Amino acid sequence: MQKIYDNADAALEGVLKDGMSIAAGGFGLCGIPELLIAAIHKAGVKNLTIASNNCGVDGFGLGILLDSKQIAKMQSSYVGENAEFMRQYLSGELELEFNPQGTLAERMRAGGAGIPGFYTKTGVGTVIAEGKEVKNFDGEDYILERGIVTDLSIVKAWKADETGNLVFRKTARNFNVPAATCGRICVVEVEEIVPAGSLDPDHVHLPGIYVHRLIQGQHEKRIEQRTVRKRPEAAAATNGGNA
């Protein structure tokens, strides 16, 4: 099967539709499938349900889909870096299903593994448990969480071979792997594609059997929270030469 496509538009051709569900990888701005997100924005599909740890930031990542009102519902664990996300939620324009971060990752992993649901202590006795089945195991209450299966997965990897075996870098691995497995179709963007057989099997984080379509592209390296301090000599000058 030929998996490599020329660009994001071509890789998503025939896949997108109004009202679909999408699992999007990435953690903050690290490892987000920015080229595929831009192609979804360009396609104009709407009423989307998106499962993702967060929704990017204002004007970047999934945030551009919020700005264009293409997202109807988010399944997320964190919203703090996106003012438009909070505004739409508080005004009732956006449906939000809050998940503890580990629960969201496990819901994706379970969906990808064919597990319809699992019990967890996380959220017991809180609003997270409202409307969910509670079962007691060994004297402790657990709530039932459903696995997530989506129409489409969009993820970002560092490197792939021609068959779709993927290698992720550092934090980018956190949500991209479970997100990739839970979509009925998985489309991946990478920084580099190498010949089949080039990757050490022990270094592959996700086998190519999960990957249906693949593109290579150039990516913007944004820093979500830039924290800096003055150089020692600059600080000394500011203090009149007293370090």
From TrEMBL:
InterPro entries recorded: 3-oxoacid_CoA-transf_A, CoA_trans_fam_I, CoA_transf_BS, NagB/RpiA_transferase-like
SUPFAM superfamilies named among the record's database cross-references: NagB/RpiA/CoA transferase-like (SSF100950)
Gene3D superfamilies associated with the record: Glutaconate Coenzyme A-transferase
This protein's UniProt keywords: Transferase
Basic and acidic residues: compositionally biased ranges: 223-233
Top-rank lineage group of the source organism: Bacteria
PROSITE patterns xrefs: COA_TRANSF_1
Pfam families: CoA_trans
GO MF entry, a single one: CoA-transferase activity
Annotated coiled-coil segments of the chain: none
SMART domains from the UniProt entry: CoA_trans
Region (Disordered): 223-243
PANTHER family: ACETATE COA-TRANSFERASE SUBUNIT ALPHA (PTHR13707:SF60), KETOACID-COENZYME A TRANSFERASE (PTHR13707)
Family to which the UniProt record says this protein belongs: Belongs to the 3-oxoacid CoA-transferase subunit A family.
Protein name: 3-oxoacid CoA-transferase subunit A
Lineage start: Bacteria, Pseudomonadati, Pseudomonadota, Alphaproteobacteria, Rhodobacterales
